[in-house]
Amino acid sequence: MTGIVVFNVVMVVLGVVVGTGVVSTNRLSDILGWLHSIIGITPPAPKQARVYSLIWVASMIVIVDGLLFMLVFLTMRLIR
Q1: Quick one: pLDDT at residue 63?
Q2: In the chain, how many domains are there?
Q3: Structural domain boundaries enclosing 51
Q4: For the chain, how big is the Rg over CA atoms in Å?
Q5: Mean pLDDT by 10 residues, the chain (80 residues)
């Protein structure tokens, strides 16, 4: 339970840091270029790096929390 809360707090703080501009656009562009090249998709333009970073953070929160919810929901259904 603590790990889930810590994950969500870290991701929200990361989203705030990216959204407020604490991290430079060049650094975000480099990180997104690396991430997109691993996946095999075209990286965004440097001026769009902040928006794409926020989309990545929000997507990770939804995916991880959704999978954990499904795990708990389905496990509880099997126990009954």
Answers
A1: 96
A2: 1
A3: 2-79
A4: 16
A5: 93 92 86 87 87 92 95 85
User: Which element (helix H / strand E) includes 40?
Assistant: none
Amino acid identity for residue 7 in this structure: F
Rounded Cα gap, residues 69 and 67, in angstroms: 5
- The Cβ of residue 24 has, within 10 Å, a number of other Cβ atoms equal to 11
Residue 23 near residue 17 (C-beta atoms within 8 A):
yes
Q: What φ, ψ does residue 55 adopt, rounded to 5°? A: -65, -40
Q: At what angle do helices 2-20 and 49-79 cross, to 10 degrees?
A: 160
pTM of the predicted structure, to 2 decimals: 0.81
